[in-house]
Write a structure and sequence with these properties.
Number of strands: 3
Oligomer: single chain
Shape: globular
Strand content: 5-15%
CATH superfamily of the largest domain: 5'-nuclease
Radius of gyration: 15 Å
Largest sheet: 3 strands, parallel
Strand order of the largest sheet: 1-2-3
Distance between the termini: 21 Å
Number of helices: 6
Length: 121
C-alpha cells in the first residue's frame, strides 16, 4: 500500500478552521483516503499535535469541547506513527546537507518525494 508521510502542521489543518491552506490540506486528506494511501507520521507527530491544540486551549483560542473534538477527529483519521532506526540520522544528514532551516526549499530539487502543501494539486 502506498504511503504519504504528513507533518503535524498539515494534520492540524484537517481539524482546525481558519488555518491557512486548510482547503488544500483537506483535499490532500480526501485524495489520500480515496486512493487508499496510508498516512504515516514521524514519532513526534502525536506530541506536536497535542501540544499545539493544548496551547490553543490554554490561550483561550479554543474551548475545551473544541479541543477535544479536534483531538478526536485527528485520532479517527488514523495517521500511523512510524519509526525506523535510521530515521533520525537520515533527517540529520538532510538538514546538514541543505544548510537551511526551511528544509523544503533546500531539498525540493534533489528529493522529489518531499512536498510543500501549497503545491498540492
Amino acid at each position: 500500500m502506498p504511503e504519504r508521510c504528513v507533518d503535524a502542521s498539515v494534520a492540524l489543518k484537517w481539524v482546525m478552521t481558519g488555518e491557512a491552506w486548510r482547503k488544500t490540506a483537506r483535499r490532500f486528506l480526501r485524495d489520500s483516503l480515496a486512493a487508499n494511501v496510508s498516512l504515516i507520521a514521524p514519532p513526534l507527530f502525536e506530541y506536536e499535535t497535542e501540544s499545539a491544540l493544548q496551547h490553543l486551549f490554554q490561550s483561550r483560542v479554543l474551548a475545551l469541547e473544541e479541543t477535544d473534538t479536534a483531538l478526536a477527529r485527528l485520532t479517527a483519521i488514523g495517521v500511523q506513527v512510524v519509526t525506523h532506526p535510521a530515521m533520525v540520522q537520515r533527517a540529520r544528514e538532510i538538514a546538514r546537507q541543505s544548510q537551511q532551516t526551511r528544509i523544503y526549499d533546500a531539498v525540493k530539487e534533489q528529493l522529489s518525494f518531499v512536498k510543500y502543501l501549497p503545491d498540492y494539486p
